[in-house]
Amino acid sequence: MTIEFNYFYYAVGILFGCQLLLLILLSIKKTRRNLKNKEQEQLYQATLNDFVDFLYEEGRPIPDKLCNPENIEVAERIFSETITDINDPIMERKLQDAAISIFTEHYKKRLLKGNWPTRINTLYFIEDFKIVSLLPVLQKMLQSLNKWDEEKNQTILALAALNDLTLVYYLNQSADTKVNQYLDVFVRFDTEKFDEAVHISNDMKNFTCQLAIINFISLMKKTKYQWMVEKELQSENIEMRIQALKGLYRLNYMKDVSLLVPFLQSPSWEERLFSTRIAGALLADQFEAHLEILMGDEEWWVRNAAAEALLSIFGEEKLVQVEFSHTDAFARDMAKQWLTSGKRGSAN
Amino acid sequence: MGVTALSYIFLFLLSIKNVLREGKLIKTESLEDIAISERTFPVSIIVPAYNEVVGVVSTVRSLLALNYPQYEIIVVDDGSKDDTLAKLIEELKLEQVDLAIRKHMNTQPIRATFKSSIYSLVTVVSKDNGGKADALNCGINVSKYPYFCAIDGDSILENDALLKVMKPVIDSEGKTIAVGGSVRVANGTTISRSKVETIDLPKNPLVILQIVEYFRAFLIGRLGFTKINQLLIISGAFGLFHKTTVIRSGGYKVATVGEDMELIVRLHRMIREESLDLQLKYIPDPVCWTEAPDSLKVLKSQRVRWQRGLAETLFAHKKMFLNPKYGLIGFIAFPYFFMVELLGAVVEVLGFFLIAGGLLFGFLDPYVIGIILLVTILYGSFISSLSILLEELTMFKYPKVRHLILLFFWALTESFWYRPLIVIWRLEGLLKSFRRKEAEWGKMERKGISSDNR
Q1: Which residues of A touch B120 (CB under 8 A)?
Q2: Which of B155, B188, B446, B408 is nearest to B286 (CA)?
Q3: So what's the architecture of A259-347 in CATH?
Q4: For B217, which DSSP code?
Q5: Using CA atoms, how far apart are residues A37 and A31, in angstroms rounded to an integer?
Q6: How far is Cα B35 from Cα B51, in angstroms, rounded to an integer?
Q7: What is the pLDDT of residues A38-96, one digit of tens each?
Q8: Do B101 and A348 touch (CB under 8 A)?
Q9: What span, in angstroms and rounded, lies between the C-alpha atoms of A77 and A86?
């Protein structure tokens, strides 16, 4: 009993000691962090004006303090905040060159020796500051990463920001690349690089990549590729046709509106929905009869889109007519809703 | 009590790895793509409100300030007896409209629907009283977007909250059907227009201990369970859901007070029964601030209600208990909630009686009991201090050393007064669960947490 009892004394001592130690350590950490934050804030305030002068005045050097490795976090903050506010290409170039000279060596070390969060944060900065000098390091890193996780994803995004076209080949060769991953890459490419990516994709005939391209063209309103989107209406794959319809709706343009007819009668509600939306957006009055039928569609979204289309093409009178004379109760309800709240664009 | 404490150590070990890995990431960077992306799914935010005249307008205003590409706000007034609806009509300049509503779930009748003439995102539904679950189901019926977010009528979301909870959905390409985030106690902080301006600790020890309790529940409990895909609770104060999946599962169950947990358990059950490749996630980022009870009366009512909800949910899904058909959920999370969270209170009360009886009749040595109690108390506060450690490693929201000392100090006192009270109320909740009662709203005396409201 005495020996067991001693264990309790030890337990009391250990538990109390652990908590006290934890409190002391956390207090020290918090004090240090607060102190560091204060120092960094002071340095930031003291350096910001010099940095702005460097950006705007010809021949001014980068402020010395920012080149000091000890002040790297302040430099990162200043670059991050500045880069989002600058639109002038010459100044962007100046900022990028400055970032390359300050961060390259430091980031190389972090990528090779840093722990996981350090590497990920570094990849964020490489992407933001477009540190092209690290392209070979990143390419090597990508080859060594097998598991598709946050690190691999962020490495790809950083490489995309550096306009590395080999990424398209890399992604096309990987069987499990998703549409969103292509989109993340395309959105970072310059226009010329995207044009080249389209050519590569057409040559390689990778379905996921082509789906992503159709998606991207419409998201970014790249009207010069509208023909590609319209062509995909003939695709045998329903997913591709839906993306093409969605794309044409976003682009708000079709060369041949009559191509919509089969989609307005399609067994797929998504095809009916997007073709209805396109008809409304393009004010295609030849589809009046189709739209009236779609007001009584089994799918709520299609009825909603049909009401919106009829309202935009033919005005309120048409919806009043539907409200009182349509044979379908759902169609009448939808017309009523659009007549009371549709003008604010607040359809339920 | 020992089992409870040991399970928390196990969950802490599961959480710490995640915290050390992801706690230092620059969060805003990882959200940049989502914030500007047209691929982000639009979300309907549903705010069920019952007698929320104090906070509901500031909640709506805070929601209007959210950083998210496309969303709508649906306030469902569940037949409030106070001036909730009148206040909404006046402040949001509501106009009555006819809405064509899809009836996915049956609810109490809708009295009227309104649209704000100044904020096009806002819809208000006035309906007959039917309880929180009924109000949420009504909100789902009215909603138009593929995801919905349920929040309490007096919660304030941080302005990037929706982006944070949507990230796991986008990353998983839709395989994540529900996401919960950390809910934090707002008492003591200054919040304006969805932005937390200053963080401080409240003076009331009752609230301070709830802060510690929230750390423990969210940073140790939920983070640990989500690591092994066993998350059984997403707080009713804030959760994001895939609408079609929730509708398929039957929506919120009306005849329970624990509608939030019941839905999550039912979703898990559906996933297992239909072998679906879907998951539920929790993110440790604090995304929602809520007002904690600052009186014993209200805290008691809340805890009795929580425990009753837990009991009702576990009994309703008892089939999952130790059933191999439900995989590890049936063998880890379900037994944990049953043995620790539900029956733990019974065991603790029995323990108290046993000790009191032993001391009274002289078959226990007071000295031995004293030492054992001391170890138990220190162990309990040690677990709390580990949760404070996790908070410091992830969010370090409380900026001063004074905050740390206060949190540690009150955690040390928890076992003397706070825990016994909670245990008794949990027991009361368990007993009440045997008496069938209609679902009701919790009674919370709101003071309002947003400075916009004051």
Answers
A1: 344-346
A2: B155
A3: Alpha Horseshoe (1.25)
A4: I
A5: 10
A6: 34
A7: 999 999 999 999 999 998 888 888 898 888 889 999 999 999 988 888 888 888 889 99
A8: yes
A9: 15
Calculate ∠ Cα B300-B301-B306, nearest 5°: 95
pTM score, whole prediction: 0.83
What tokens were used for A274?
A: 């997007």
Could you report the predicted ipTM of this complex, rounded to two decimals?
0.80
| A6, closest residue in chain B (CA to CA) | B371
Of the candidates A31, A66, A60, the residue with the CA atom closest to the CA atom of residue A48: A66
Please provide the size of chain B in residues: 454
Q: How far is CA B430 from the centre of its chain?
A: 19
Q: Which of B234, B233, B285, B59 is nearest to B152 (CA)?
A: B59
Phi then psi for residue A264, to 5 deg, are: -70, -15
What tokens does B161 get? 């909250």
CA atoms within 13 A on the CB side of B283: 22
> Given an 8 Å threshold on Cβ–Cβ distance, is A330 in contact with B97?
no
How many beta carbons lie within 10 A of that of residue B237, not counting itself?
Answer: 22
Alpha-carbon distance A165 to A197, whole Å?
A: 7
The tokens describing B71, both together, are 């969303």
Q: Which of A23, A124, A303 shows the shortest C-beta gap to B404?
A: A23
**Chain A contact present for B40, CB below 8 A:** no
Domain ranges in chain A with CATH number 1.25.10.10: 259-347
Quick one: closest CA in A to B103, which residue? Answer: A300
Matching residue, tokens 């200053």: B198
Residue of B nearest to A128 (CA): B29
- Placement of tokens 């706070």 in the chain: B418
